[in-house]
Amino acid sequence: MKKILAIFLIVLLLGIGFFLFSQTSIVKGEMYQCSENTDCISVSSDCCGCAYMGTAIAINKNFRSEWDSKINKECKNMYCPAAISNHPSCFAEPKCVLGTCRL
């Protein structure tokens, strides 16, 4: 029972951390602008990404290296749970909706 409680608390704290990271670290502006669906790609929205219980977002493909650099810098010492996320964003296709990349 103590193990289950400890695992629950760890997952809860990681979830809170991911939420706070995603709310404070996402760069606004032209990184999300698009004119057609092929302008958009899906990327990790947080340090861990979909392969490690994270989520995804859509950005303009021209900003991929900038986004990767940003994530790598902010997540340098972050450890992620070894579990694949089932968040809907991880399975969504990136599209251009009213000039903005979205999942």
Domain module count: 1
Largest sheet: 2 strands, antiparallel
Query: In whole angstroms, how far apart are the ends?
Result: 38 Å
Q: Could you tell me the mean pLDDT?
A: 82
Briefly note the structural class of the backbone: alpha+beta
Q: Would you report the number of β strands?
A: 4
The geometry reads as flat
| Total of helices | 2
Poorly predicted residue ranges: 18-26
The assembly state of the depicted protein chains is single chain
Which percent band covers the strand fraction? 15-25%
H/E series: HEEHEE
Spatial strand sequence of the major β-sheet: 1-2
Radius of gyration: 15 Å
The percent of residues in helical segments reads 25-40%
Write up what this structure looks like.
- It is a single chain.
- This protein has about 100 residues and is α+β, with helices and mostly antiparallel strands.
- It has one domain.
- Helix content is about 35%, strand content about 15%.
- The protein is flat, with a radius of gyration of 15 Å.
- About 25% of the residues are buried.
